[in-house]
Structure formats: C-alpha cells, structure tokens
Amino acid sequence: MLVKNDAEKRWVNGSLATVTGMATDHVSVRLDEGGIEHHVIRESWDSVKYQLDHSRTRIEAKIVGTYSQIPLIPAWAITIHKAQGLTLSDVRIDLGAGAFSEGQTYVALSRAKSIDGLSFVKALNVGDVRVHPDLVEGVSRLAAHAAH
Predict the structure, then answer these.
(1) What pLDDT sits at residue 35?
(2) pLDDT at 37 over 90
(3) Do residues 19 and 29 lie in contact, with contact meaning Cβ atoms separated by under 8 Å?
(4) Are the CB atoms for 99 and 24 separated by under 8 Å?
(5) Minimal CA–CA distance to 104: which of 83, 129, 124?
(6) Phi, psi values for residue 56, rounded to 5°
C-alpha cells in the first residue's frame, strides 16, 4: 500500500499495488487499480513540535527531525486506527471480539470506496456500532428542537 499522495496524482495514500522490482533509488509497483507500473522514490517527512510563543501569543512549529522512506507498507492487514484517512478499494473488516471504541466501526466502514469492495470476516452485530453518549444526547436535543 502506498502511504503518501503522489505529487503527480498517479496514486493516493491508500492505493494498493504489487511490488514488481527494486533498485537502489526506487521500488517499481503495478497499481491494482488500472494496472499501470510506476517507480516509487524515497520521500521525506518532517517531525514537528508545536510550542506556544508567549511573547507573540501564537503557536510556532519547530522541526525537530526529518525521516525518509519509500512510502510503501505491507497491506495484507492494517489496524482500523492506521487505516483512518485512507480510501481503499478492497476492505475486509475483522472486528474480532467486537468493536471496543465509539466510532471504530464507522471508521472501518468509511474506508471502503464502494459497497462492492467491502466484506466482513464475521457478521456485524448491533453491539459493534458504538456511539459516544454525548453524541446521542446532542442529536436528541437537536431532534427535539427541530420538532418544535
């Protein structure tokens, strides 16, 4: 899986591909969607620490490090947390013993690009859809207000 949007818009964070070759300066991949082969090169990211500048009452970003990698990871399995923000063509959801956090099932479901690319290891249960009580209360208040 590619984990960074391509500046030339050939793939996005979450695009799936098959590695077809490696060289010292790139990895060759064939995108699952479209079957086109590309060279993926090393990219760099900054690690940023944010601090409050009291004298100017504003938050300042300070680069505390930089790392680089070829933006690929194995994608046979990733956690729902790590999938957050991705759009995926093929999503197979395994909630194991069930969802353990509010919004977890929503995040998992919303990663799928279409219903055709979505499947489950086991059936989804009512208990797997967990919502924060504050959200339920807020929506109830809005619904009561709208009814008047």
Answers:
(1) 92
(2) yes
(3) yes
(4) no
(5) 129
(6) -110, 0
Nearest to 72 by CA among 146, 133, 19: 19
Mean pLDDT within 84-92: 81
Q: What is the DSSP letter of 116?
A: G
**8 Å CB contact between 91 and 19:** no
d(CA 134, CA 107): 18
Q: What is the pLDDT of residues 41-63, one digit of tens each?
A: 999 989 999 999 999 899 999 99
Segment 119-123 mean pLDDT: 89
Residue 60's pLDDT is 94
Per-position DSSP letters for 44-83, written without gaps between them = EEEEEEEEEETTTTEEEEEEEEEEEE-SB---S---HHHH
Give the Cα separation of 142 and 136 in Å (integer): 10
For 124, list phi and psi in degrees, rounded to 5: -75, 130
Q: Which residues contact 97 (CB under 8 A, 6 or more apart)?
A: none
Pairing of strands 118-120, 91-93: parallel
